[in-house]
Amino acid sequence: MVVGVDLARGGWAVVVLEEKGVVESFRCDTFAEAVVTEASVIAVDIPIGIPDQGARLADVAARRFVGPRASSVFATPVRPVLEAPSYAEARHVALELTGRSISAQSYALRHRILEVDDHAHEDERVIEVHPEVSFCELAHRPLPSKHGADGLSERRLLLEQAGIDPPASVPRIAEPDVLDATVAAWTATRYALGKAVPLPEGLRERIGAIWR
Predict the structure, then answer these.
(1) For 128-148, how does the pLDDT look when each residue is reduced to its tens digit (9 = 90+)?
(2) Which DSSP string do the residues of the chain spell out, in sequence order?
(3) Do the beta carbons of residue 130 and residue 123 sit within 8 Å?
(4) Which end of the chain is more exposed for a tag (fewer CB within 10 A), N or C?
(5) Same domain, yes or no: 109 and 138
(6) pLDDT tens, position by position, 178-194
(7) Is the dihedral of CA 140, 47, 40, 159 positive or negative?
(8) Does residue 82 lie in a domain region?
(9) Is 121 a member of any domain?
(10) Is 186 in the same domain as 91?
(11) Which domain holds residue 97?
């Protein structure tokens, strides 16, 4: 049993696979609720391994890997920025440490990032994934945007061809988030079987890599 987790408009989309079959799918408010006890791997789409300075090698490698979908890869803020008590302070710290400000959207994710990072350092089952990276691995090429009908139908078809029947719908979760959580679970299965590959390639540590 493995779990795929994706951010879903103020909460988390969760898809649980067992032998490639979806046994449960739901929305929850905290990452702790997504940590299914019986799961061997929990793959989540959020940065794990927050840098103290500079850009994460995983982010750089992931942007290169997905090519035209590079803008979908989140640039992980440095830890002092995420720990800043206000957005104004975060912008000041970001400019001082990196020479660039931080968007309000990125700062708003700080509690999610810090929550998952704490879990990942305590629970070796937790790995980082990125849906665009996973779909690119599954298709062997970048896909059209998930915000269009063609992109969604192609993602669903790829999962079905991989032997996974994604949920048709999940209450309070948009279809793109359902599919992203499902492909995260696909990568979790690969990780459980020892088949997942890290970005950047050659990295041996669980934390600091985006797995595909």
Answers:
(1) 999 999 999 999 999 999 999
(2) -EEEEEEETTEEEEEEEETTEEEEEEEESSHHHH--TT-SEEEESS--S--SSS--HHHHHHHHHHGGGGGGS--PPPHHHHT-SSHHHHHHHHHHHHSS---HHHHHTHHHHHHHHHHHHH-TTEEEB-HHHHHHHHHTS----TTSHHHHHHHHHHHHHTT----S-BTTB-HHHHHHHHHHHHHHHHHHTT---EESTT---STT-EE-
(3) no
(4) N
(5) no
(6) 999 999 999 999 999 99
(7) negative
(8) yes
(9) no
(10) no
(11) 57-116
- Domain annotation covers residue 101: yes
Domain total in the chain: 2
CA angle, 153 as apex, 147 and 156 as ends, to 5°? 110
Domain final residue, candidates 116, 142, 159 = 116
Q: Strand pairing of 41-44 and 2-8?
A: parallel
Predicted model pTM? 0.96
